[in-house]
Please model this.
Amino acid sequence: MSCCTWSTTEKQSLLGNHSYGGDYVQTDKESDEPKYQPICPSYRLLVCTIAFGVGCCGFGSQALVGASLLLMTRQNNDVSVHATRLPSNTQPLSEIQSTNGSTFSTSLYDEDEWHYDWDKSTKGWLASSYFAGYYLMQIPAGWLTGRCGGYRLILTSGAVNVLCQALSVWIPRYGPHAFAALLFVSGLANACTFPALFAVTAKWCPPNESSRLMTLVNLGDGIGIGIVYLISMGTSRIQLIGGWPFNFISIIGMQTTFLLLWATLVSNLPEDNKFVKRSEVNYIKKYFPNTTNQRKRIPWRKILTYPPVYAIAASLYGADFIIYSMVTTFPEYLASVRHMSTSLTSMLSGLPCLLCPITSYLASQIVDTLGEKRIVATITTRKISDVIAKPVAGLFLLISSLLPEDYVVSSSVLYATSGILLFAFQGCSWPANMAEMAPYHAGEVFVIAQAVSMTGPFMAPPIFAALTLHNSAGEWQLCFGITFAVLVLTSLLYVTFASSKKADWDEESTELN
Model:
């Protein structure tokens, strides 16, 4: 590839009104076909990595609901149990001496302002209040993505979410209803994150790299959840302001960092970025020649009547159902039936998420290799990934619940394996499929799919709470059985109706004045 100096006229002729950053590199004279640009290192990989960080904070904010509620209530605080084991004739003490001679204040453990007497039902509708806001904002989030662009919407929704996390440290002391209102607003803001994220990254991901790049973007859900539970393991031991506020403080720091990176290094389109090399822009534009920042009229009717959109919705429904159940509800099972401590519960819940970078990378490499070498059709790889991520993972989860209560190690291994399979293969399923089917309208397709899928996570916490009033093993086995049935049904719908063929309506938008 030879290099030369381009005149202003030649640049405008080739690039139109767009301004490219980086060096201008001339393609071979024998062919106008842009040469392949390695995925590593590349600027599109950097963009998807930053998108991963943004998504990690978004899903981490969701995981905070379950992880923090577990630590905010007195009945689930491991240390408070020991603090109340005093003889009935003991006078109230402001300090207790530990076995090593040090003293600590009892106000940090039991009768303190940082823990709340919320029963199981209250925690159930508190978790649902977040998902109510998240669910109601789905279609408006799609409209805002098309109206404002994904780049700006990420910054706006992220700023609102950071504010909500900061207020979450103080608002609960005004009662569960005030906290529920704040969670509702946080859900509204966070609902805008993911359609905007997919709308931007879909235009940076060539189809032959969609499994790897979209898996990286989608890794945010697993890593975000894992980080929150890892943080919870530490904050459960902190003897200061209840410990749990540090969950929110940590997420605030992470989200602020990635929002600054997003604002500085990312753009809606590759050609608008002043840092990316023109050779890479040419390579990406080969697959997306008609991208534009002009506001467009979205073909909602054609999108809403296209069956593969609902195949993605079915797959996303199953993924959301099991993920949010593992985040908000199943930790209660590990604590009450398997009698695990808060720290061990957090570790087991977060382990599959923390391992998902390795497992997801291996899965995406296998899937992309099978597709590139035409060993298996692309859509077949998507369907196989979906079956592994849902029915197979759900089967491991169900078996873990059927083991006797004293089979703690075996049950824990099966439980963790279920999560590992889920997070390893789901990125190769509906996210990559969506980027292939509708790269120009990935954000709109996502919000439609999410509007359908969020009915499950919205309803699951209170339903499971109602089914497990006595926290018996049989009650929880019923919950795991329902989860497995949901995963089988949604995967069956996806396998039946999914398509990786680019939709005819994807480029039919007309520009608005």
User: Anything to note?
Assistant: The domain at 8-25+34-78+114-511 is CATH 1.20.1250.20 (Growth Hormone; Chain: A;). Residues 286 and 346 are 46 Å apart (CA to CA).
